[in-house]
Amino acid sequence: MVTNQDGLGTSSFPRPTFEAPQEFILQAFRSQGIEFDAVFVCPHFQTDGCECRKPELRSRAMARRLADARRQLDALDDQIKAVALRRVNALQDQAGAASNRSADLNNQLSSSLSASNCRMM
Length: 121
Ligand SMILES: [Zn+2]
What we know:
67% of the residues lie in helices and 5% in strands. The chain is mainly α and 121 residues long. It has a domain at 1-55. Helix 1 links the parallel strand 1 (2-4) and strand 2. It is rod-shaped and about 100 Å long. The model has no long low-confidence stretch (mean pLDDT 87). The protein binds zinc ion. Zinc ion binds at residues 42, 44, 50, 52-53. Residues 42, 44, 50, 52-53 line the site of zinc ion (ZN).
């Protein structure tokens, strides 16, 4: 969301006058499942010549760059999850193999003990 709020924070336009309706609007969107990636507010006057005033390209470019960064972060998150999943699966396989070896050793030990008991009788 990119919005111009001329003179926001001045005595003629105190922040609470903006923040309450802004939060109401964001909540209304949120209730419909719509979340903004970012909210850019230009508090300047048109005569200030700032770069964050709509429709200056800079504010749109900032919003686009932020959205791109979020997409990259999501992709990275998926890659990290895939690596973690492979590690968990590998550990699970190793644990299964160790358990099988342990069972084999127990069986061999039981067999040899039975055999030696038979000889002693
Ligand atoms: Zn501005």
